[in-house]
Design brief:
By secondary structure, the chain is of the alpha+beta class. The protein has helices at residues 2-28, 109-121, 180-200, and strands at residues 48-50, 58-59, 61-63, 67-70, 73-74, 77-78, 85-89, 94-102, 129-136, 142-149, 156-161, 166-174, 202-203. The radius of gyration is 29 Å and the shape is globular.
Length: 205
């Protein structure tokens, strides 16, 4: 009995040494950090429809998967124009905020253009750089498209005008924390829709 007990003790000690050795060896291993994973995004097939609105003096194409909602108030204030819209990309938790103004003596073209550039320049604090693309179409539509790189709230903005009567402005916002690495593919996808909107934009006679 005494010999068997001693044998059991030796066997237990041997196993303990093996386990401890394995733990020590494992402790020397460096665990590589897992790459950051972002949620998989399902992209709808590209298809467009004419913007269905009777209260705006223009027409343009929007994606069939986008919801268009009219805005009647801005910060609890009644809007002077009926043509303020939200084009909602619900699949991507993003909104294209759109506003329209009649050009008047008080609300003249130079003022509206300056205001549009000021709204873009507000992002200079966080922006790495801002690209400006001039828009000049044969149907009397002109303006600028702004692409803002960096951790900014709105990376795509633009305005369209005829310089005499109409001024339309839009800016894209994501209803989520700004993370350009994860948003970049979605941003590029929606930018295609914005380009289509601009290309199809026309003032109504």
């Amino acid at each position: 009995m005494r010999g068997r007990k001693r044998s059991n003790i030796l066997m237990a000690s041997f196993l303990l040494v093996i386990v401890m050795t394995g733990v020590q060896c494992g402790g020397d291993k460096q665990v590589a950090p897992k790459p950051r994973a972002y949620p998989k995004v399902e992209y709808p097939e590209k298809a467009y429809r004419l913007l269905d609105t009777l209260f705006c003096p223009f027409q343009a194409e929007v994606p069939v998967y986008a919801q268009v909602r009219r805005k009647e108030n801005y910060f609890d204030q009644k809007l002077n124009s009926e043509c303020w819209l939200n084009i909602e990309f619900t699949d991507f938790n993003a909104v294209l905020h759109c506003s329209y103004d009649n050009i008047t003596d008080q609300n003249n073209f130079d003022k509206l253009k300056t205001d549009a550039f000021k709204l873009v320049d507000k992002h200079n604090v966080k922006a790495q750089y801002i690209d400006r693309y001039e828009i000049e179409k044969e149907n009397g539509v002109s303006g600028f498209l702004f692409k803002i790189e960096g951790p900014v709230a709105s990376a795509t903005q633009f305005y369209l005008t005829d310089s005499t009567d109409h001024f339309f402005r839009a800016s894209l916002y994501f209803n989520t924390r700004v993370n350009r690495d994860s948003l970049a593919p979605v941003q590029a996808y929606i930018d295609e829709d914005i380009n289509r909107f601009i290309e199809s934009f026309a003032w109504e006679n």
